Amino acid sequence: QVQLVESGGGLVQAGGSLRLSCAASGRTFSSYAMGWFRQAPGKEREFVASISSIRYAGNTDYAESVKGRFTLSRDNAKNTAYLQMNSLKPEDTAVYYCAAPDRYGSNWLRSRYEYHYWGQGTQVTVSS
């Protein structure tokens, strides 16, 4: 059974940085893409970033709103994905979820409907 556990959220001032981690277990981590989504109060869950499986050499894709500020990476030896968030803005405040698809060996994936496994979420709050 696939399990995803996020960590690293917290409270930070605007302009600050945080690094979120997503530890995965239950299958061969490197063979599957990973994604991050976020959900602010009263809003739908939205795509943040995705990284491909090893088949596509860890290609990444980002939402326009975070491009240039966030960096998604993965350590396949540690079965962990990392979302480095720099230059944080108050509008980045949300619960952040990592997710994994059932599709084997895929490139990055943007749609939340492509993802079958979700972590419990970690709160990120950016104060102005």
Give a verbal description of the structure.
The protein has 128 residues and is an all-beta fold. The protein is 0% helix and 48% strand. The protein has no helices and 11 strands. The strands form 2 sheets. Strands 2, 4, 5, 6, 9, 10 and 11 form a 7-stranded mixed beta sheet that branches. It is globular, with a radius of gyration of 14 Å.
In short:
By secondary structure, this protein is mainly beta. The protein is 0% helix and 48% strand. It has no helices and eleven strands.
Give a topology summary.
Blueprint: E1 3-7, E2 10-13, E3 18-25, E4 34-39, E5 46-51, E6 60-62, E7 70-75, E8 80-85, E9 94-101, E10 115-118, E11 122-127
Parallel strand pairs: 2-11
Antiparallel strand pairs: 1-3, 3-8, 4-5, 4-9, 5-6, 7-8, 9-10, 9-11
Considering the chains and any ligands shown, give keywords for the structure.
128 residues; mainly beta; four-stranded antiparallel beta sheet; 11 strands; 48% strand; globular
> Mean pLDDT across all residues, rounded?
97
Cα distance spanning the termini: 40 Å
Helix content: under 10%
Proportion of residues in β-strands: over 45%
Oligomer: single chain
Question: Compute the gyration radius: what is it?
Answer: 14 Å
Order of helices and strands: EEEEEEEEEEE
Q: If helices are DSSP runs of H or I spanning 4 or more residues, what is the number of helices? A: 0
Q: What structural class is derived from the secondary structure elements? A: mainly beta
**Uncertain ranges:** none
Largest sheet: 7 strands, mixed
General shape: globular
Q: Using DSSP, what is the number of strands?
A: 11
